[in-house]
Design a protein that fits this description.
heterodimer, A: about 110 residues, alpha/beta, 4 helices, B: about 375 residues, five-stranded parallel beta sheet, five-stranded antiparallel beta sheet, 11 helices, 15 strands, about 40% helix, elongated
Chain lengths: ~110, ~375
């Protein structure tokens, strides 16, 4: 899985993920993503190109959500595909982060 | 440790010359030199001393020549390389030697500077091969340990059916097809008291030893807690409070826990992050309505709601893990809920054993030759009234 990081206005960090968020995908981004989560209070994750979300991917997202929350920050994701969103809802990840259709809504939720 | 070099030549003068040219390496403990006068003597030495790293051999010798020696060396299972010494321009013998597995060659008269470079290069390759063998052996032993871990893990699960031959009020069956790597699926069932049957299915995140340890811990904790006769929701809440108290990074287990009252048909249940089970009732396939909650281990303080559903006699509850719906064929297609439901619609009237075996067979057929990436686990329990 690939990831790209971008600083947006208002102190928001955007992380774009691309690929299958499975064991291999999680291993590829876990450390970097957690380091970013530890350094940014307002985080949006672009999930549009995440084609599959497995349990290790969920684990990475939970860790990121925990890190952001522990520092008093906020996490929003957007653009999740139907199956990915279903997996997230089944695990009640919407209790740890907000899930949005597009980046505008995601950014607005952080303000 | 010194590299052991065996020099094979029928000319007695060569021994003196080599000892003199390499006296520094011998003195510094870098080389240890051995000598043989023909192929046969060389083979005897190699048999006696398992540590020979390099054979430097002439081609034309009495008793056994160098090319025959090379052919015999090939049968030795050891990281040992041969460098041949041939007459200048004897391309035919050189080609034969190379084809028989010689690593390199030098020509007579021997240029010792060139020979030293050749020897060092060859020894470097021998080192690499030895290292590869050590790592291969380590890997094998890790794989064996993993296989043992996998067996221990499966032995935790109740696997004898019929599990409760004295009970005519319910029937159940479960099957787990482990993936090649140690996975984290499990199921469990147990009688809480005379009328109540506990049913559990779970899936630990990740694979390998961490998942195996966490799976053993979670399943044992869940059963021990369930036997305290807590409600389904309270049981998961307690399990979560223990699992979520761990340090980062989190591990979690998706789990469904149901309690079937085998006298009244009441099903009490709670779920944490697990795919909702199917309820097969009078030829219909319904998805059991579970309240979404985080998988135990994810978030401390999560509330797990206890839900109820009244089962009718002959209703079957089917629990499964995502290894079923996310089973993938060669082309990358998922088996999906749709295929599972299509099979289950045609499974009315079947016993738990028939439903479970049938569904597992369907999934395996779908996967075909593709590698099975995740455990496949199915448990069916039928209320007979």
């Amino acid at each position: 899985m690939q990831m790209a990081v971008e600083q947006l206005d208002g102190g928001i960090t955007k992380v774009s993920l691309d690929g299958r968020f499975d064991i291999a995908g999680a291993a590829a981004v876990d450390l970097k993503l957690n380091a970013i989560a530890g350094a940014s209070k307002l985080l949006v994750i672009d999930m549009r190109n995440v084609s599959f979300l497995a349990s290790m991917g969920l684990r990475t997202l939970v860790n990121v959500a925990r890190t952001v929350k522990n520092r008093g920050g906020k996490l929003a994701v957007f653009g999740t595909l139907e199956d990915v969103e279903k997996t997230m809802l089944m695990s009640h990840l919407d209790s740890m982060m907000t899930i949005h259709r597009d980046i505008q809504n995601a950014m607005a939720s952080l303000q | 440790m010194a590299y052991k070099i065996l020099i094979v030549d029928d000319e007695p003068d060569l021994e003196l010359l080599v000892r003199q040219k390499f006296r520094r390496q011998v003195r510094e403990g870098f080389f240890e030199l051995f000598f043989a006068h023909n192929g046969k003597e060389a083979l005897q030495q190699i048999e006696q001393d398992s540590g020979i790293d390099l054979v430097l051999s002439d081609i034309n010798m009495p008793v056994m020549d160098g090319l025959t020696l090379l052919a015999r060396l090939e049968g030795i299972d050891r990281e040992l390389k041969a460098v041949m010494v041939s007459a200048y321009g004897d391309m035919q013998n050189i080609r034969t030697a190379m084809n028989r597995g010689a690593y390199d060659f030098v020509t007579k008269p021997i240029n010792f500077e060139d020979l030293e470079i050749t020897i060092n290069k060859t020894l470097h390759t021998v080192d690499t091969l030895k290292q590869a063998r050590r790592e291969r052996e380590q890997l094998l032993s890790i794989q064996q340990e993993l296989a043992v871990a996998s067996r221990i893990q499966l032995s935790i699960l109740p696997r004898i059916f019929p599990a409760f031959p004295n009970h005519s009020d319910f029937d159940l069956f479960a099957e787990i097809i482990p993936a090649k790597d140690v996975g984290g699926d499990f199921y469990d069932f147990f009688l809480i008291d005379a009328d109540r049957l506990g049913l559990v299915i779970g899936d630990v995140c990740g694979k390998g030893i961490p998942a195996a340890i966490f799976m053993a811990m979670s399943s044992t904790l869940l059963r021990a807690t369930a036997l305290q006769k807590l409600s389904a929701g309270s049981c998961l809440q307690y399990v979560n409070s223990i699992l979520a108290a761990q340090y980062e990074p989190v591990m979690f287990v998706t789990v469904f826990y149901g309690i079937l009252n085998t006298r009244t048909g009441d099903l009490e249940f709670a779920s944490g992050g697990h795919p909702p089970p199917y309820l097969l009732s009078e030829g219909k396939v319904n998805i059991l309505d579970v309240k979404p909650a985080c998988a135990p281990g994810m978030v401390d303080g999560t509330r797990y709601e206890t839900c109820h559903r009244q089962l009718r006699p002959r209703d079957t509850l089917l629990l499964y893990t995502d290894g079923v719906t996310e089973a993938t064929d060669r082309a990358g297609n998922l088996f999906s809920e749709r295929s599972a439901e299509a099979y289950l619609r045609g499974a009315a009237g079947l016993s738990p054993k028939e439903v479970v075996s049938g569904l597992v067979t369907e999934v395996r057929k779908f996967i075909g030759e593709a590698p099975q990436s995740d455990d496949i686990t199915v448990l069916a329990a039928q209320y007979l009234g």
